Amino acid sequence: MGEVIRPLGSLVMQKVESHWFLKKLESNGFKRCPYITASKKNANKSFTYDTLLRDGMIYPDPIVYSKLYFSEKVREKPGDGKEIPNELVAVYCLGENIHGYSGLVHGGAISTIFDDMLLKCCLPLVHGDIPIAVTRRLNITYNKPVPVESHIVIKTYVVKTTHRRYIIKGTLELLSDQDKENPPVYAEALGDFIEPGKKASGHLKLHKLHSKL
C-alpha cells in the first residue's frame, strides 16, 4: 500500500506538481487550467475562495486539469442531441484547520469542494456568452472519513445533458505515491445543475460583469 503524501508546505506542493498522477492526466489529454476564472475582486468575496482557501485549510489553490478547458466555450445549440463529454480533475492540499471531528475533514467542506468542482466541470457545456449554471440538487455519499493534512483528488465527469440541465458525478480519493487500479473512494457526489431562466440569468450576468470592473 502506497504512502499518502501529506502537505508540509511549498516543498511538498512542488513534489505534487511533478507527481506521476498529474503526468498521467497530461498523457491522457487533460489540460492544466486555472482554478479561478473570475476577477480577484469577485473571488475575494466568494465563500469558497475567501473562507476556505487559506493557510491551514485549503492552501495553495487547487491544481486543476480538464478535458475541456472550462474558460473556453463549447458552442452547441440547446437540444441538438449532441453529448459533449467533459472530465475535470483537481488536487487539493488540505490543512489541519479544516476538521470537524478532531483529525477528520469536515463534511461540509467536502460538499463545498464537490459543488465547486462539479459546477466547473459542466461550465464548458453551458450556452450563452457568459456561462452560468446553478446547483439544483447535490447528493453526497461519505464512504470513509477523510484525514486532515492530506492531498485529495476530486474526479468529476458529465453523465447527462438535456437542454439547460447537466448531471455531473464526482469522486474523492487520496493522492497516493502508487498507481492503483481501484483506489479507495472516500466520498461520492451526484450533482444536478441548471442554467437559470432569462430573467435570473440576466441578473447574474450583470452581477458578474460588474464584479470585473
TrEMBL record:
Pfam families, A to Z: 4HBT
Top-level division of the source organism's lineage: Eukaryota
UniProt domain Thioesterase: residue ranges: 103-165
UniProt cross-references to InterPro entries, sorted A to Z: HotDog_dom_sf (IPR029069), PTE-AB_protein (IPR052061), Thioestr_dom (IPR006683)
Stored PANTHER family: UPF0644 PROTEIN PB2B4.06
Protein name, as recorded: Thioesterase domain-containing protein
Lineage of the organism: Eukaryota, Fungi, Dikarya, Ascomycota, Saccharomycotina
